[in-house]
Specification:
Elements: E1 2-9, H1 13-24, E2 29-32, H2 40-44, E3 49-50, H3 61-72, E4 77-79, E5 82-84, H4 87-100, E6 104-106, E7 109-117, E8 120-128, E9 131-142, H5 148-153, E10 157-158, E11 172-175, H6 182-191, E12 204-206, E13 212-215, H7 227-251, E14 259-263, E15 274-275, H8 283-286, E16 295-298, E17 302-303, E18 317-318, E19 324-326, E20 338-340, H9 358-373, H10 379-388
Parallel strand pairs: 1-2, 1-9, 2-6, 9-20
Antiparallel strand pairs: 3-5, 4-5, 7-8, 8-9, 10-15, 11-13, 11-14, 12-13, 16-19, 17-18
Helix pairs in contact: 1-9, 3-4
């Protein structure tokens, strides 16, 4: 059995940031994921858009490291408040930064079980190919997006009602398109009758080459915590793609000759479940002009997008206060050496939009990794290391 200071389950952007944060804090770190490499939803669900940046284009800490790495290679384009790249560029950058941080990595590794003693995870078992491997650590971080490690360890979790869980989508990449103005496309989009219910806004991102784009126009509602529902939703979304393609060719000159290059191999899920923590990020927090106690990362600027009956939800609004992610929202209520990051931190379901975008996930991820490396210290100790690693904590 190999032993580490910190083990991180999930190699998406939050787990990536957690691993680097923990390593920079002096820990020996293992990062593992069920996919063939790093990237998580951003790569495998084909959403390589670093959304969630502040107006001055500072993400803090690991987010800025990633931005600078991509910018140095001319692999990042700013459009509005998002930084757009390509899946392979993002994945290569993440791998390079993890290797530079000397993080041990294990891929194609499915979590099998977590063995607990009292209120602590003692070790985990993962399956890689046909081999079962055991790993022990002092502290663990769940960055899976589905709270897989939390479930295996018996941590308290909660699943939102479907109407609060946001739409599920299936991204697809197209080429042979003409460069388009998104505002113009969206205006014309709203004037037409789109064939897919629940999608009332054009969602598409031009990539590094203007003749290519990732389109996010499929839409379906369902319970992403149910494997059967996920299978059903993926098939339904697959069937929507050719319908959308035919409609776009007919209705928009910019897409008259588009070709589908690739359909995402995994479902695009925005919210599955979250841990039950020591301090939830509430709707009231997003409306408060003062940050919650013990802030460890910043929130996005809007809540309520991707509702199941249209883009905007009944509670959707711009955030004008100073909300922040509280330390307690990362800490499991009943497993003392387990932290969470990314979209599974404890939030009111209506607030998930404020923490699920890439840069916000990296913010909570780096905080969780640092806390795990420092043996989940008092906030004052954690805050000093967050500042040393140039994190933006509110």
């Amino acid at each position: 059995m190999k032993k580490y200071d910190v083990i991180i389950a999930g190699g998406g952007v939050s787990g990536f940031a957690a691993a680097i944060g923990a390593s920079q804090a002096g820990a020996r770190v293992l990062l593992f994921d069920r996919q063939p490499s790093v990237g998580g939803t951003a790569v495998y669900a084909m959403t390589p858009v670093l959304g969630g940046w502040k107006a001055d284009r500072k993400g803090g800490g690991v987010a800025d490291m990633l931005k600078e790495y991509l910018e140095e290679r001319n692999e990042l384009i700013w459009r509005g408040c998002n930084a757009d790249t390509e899946e392979d560029c993002l994945q290569n950058a993440m791998l390079a930064l993890l290797e530079e941080a000397r993080v041990d990595m294990l891929f194609d590794a499915e979590l099998v079980s977590a063995k607990c003693a009292d209120d602590r995870i003692a070790f985990i078992t993962v399956k890689q190919n046909s081999e079962l491997l055991e790993f022990a650590a002092g502290n663990f971080v769940d960055a899976t997006g589905e709270a897989a490690l939390a479930l295996a360890a018996g941590a308290l979790t909660t699943v939102p009602p479907v109407e609060l869980s946001m739409t599920k989508t299936l991204m697809f990449k197209v080429r042979n398109i003409k460069s388009f103005d998104k505002d113009s496309i969206n205006k014309r989009f709203r004037e037409k009758e789109f064939p897919i219910p629940g999608q009332d806004r054009f969602m598409g991102t031009q990539l590094l080459h203007n003749d290519e784009a990732n389109l996010n126009l499929t839409a379906v509602a369902g319970d992403a915590s149910s494997p059967e529902e996920c299978d059903r939703m993926y098939r339904e979304l697959q069937n929507q793609v050719p319908v959308i393609v035919e409609w776009l060719r007919k209705e928009f000159p910019e897409f008259a000759e588009l070709e589908v290059v690739r359909v995402a191999p995994i479902l695009g899920v925005r919210y599955t479940r979250s841990i039950v923590s020591r301090r939830q990020l509430s709707l009231a927090d997003t409306q408060n002009t003062e940050p919650p106690p013990e802030p460890v990362g910043f929130c996005g600027s809007y809540i309520g997008g991707h509702y199941i009956n249209g883009y905007s939800s009944p509670w959707g609004h711009a955030i004008t206060g100073k909300p922040a992610i509280p330390y307690g929202a990362l800490r499991s209520a009943n497993i003392s050496n387990l932290l969470a990051c990314g979209r599974i931190i404890d939030v009111d379901p209506r607030v998930i939009s404020a923490v699920r975008l890439c840069v916000n996930c990296m913010s909570s991820g780096q905080a969780a990794g640092i806390a795990a490396a420092l043996d989940i210290p008092d906030y004052e100790v954690l805050a000093e290391e967050l500042k040393r690693q140039k994190c933006l904590i509110q």
